[in-house]
Amino acid sequence: REGDLAAARVRTHGERLAHAYGTASLYVRYNTGREVADNGARLARALARAVAAWPTEVRRIVLVGHSMGGLVARAACHAALDAEHEWIHRATDVVYLGTPHLGAPLARGVHVAAGMLARAPETRGVTRLLDHRSPGVCDLTTGQLPAATRPLPDAIRHRLLAATLTRDPRHPLGRALGDLMVHPASGSGRSRRRDAGLGEDVVVQGGIDHFDLLSDPRVGDQLVDWLSADASSQPAPATG
Question: CA-to-CA distance for 90 and 93, rounded, in angstroms?
Fold first, then answer.
């Protein structure tokens, strides 16, 4: 059937949402060397310009961020609120795919290693090399954003999707390795010690690595399910 053939040709999450709801997608690249807050402020301004120039009325905005991109998307919302960009009041959802809300193990490992190597004169040269990490990578150590001046509007729903290499997300190995880059607790925004305060709308998918989150059909299905609420309002644009 024609509808089935069209669905089979879908390749990206943006295409999947366009097929399901007729959305328009903007794909944003950012400088990973900059601080997350800086990238967020730049994204907030770029969205303000895009909405102002959009040929039709923009009724709904959904931000989808992968990995560090999720932190950038959240920072953009705070920056938009502080700068009083009008688009923040049209934002309904922020979706985080494998975002290290509580920090990424690799970034933390480098941070700890730099501190340990700095103790010995023989290894201080290596420490100086490790300390040349970019501000953006340093932000991944904890995943925390600068203190927000105001909370985001309650109307914005935060959707968190984490992944594990094991098919069973509850498997001990899956809990330990996560998606190879982000642990399930960090991707879910909640551990025994910390809570990112993003709510409980969390899904952990098994059998997916960090970069498969960008294209796995199960992730696309979850996006469609999450964004089905008020789909008649034609969410456009969505960023990813």
Answer: 9
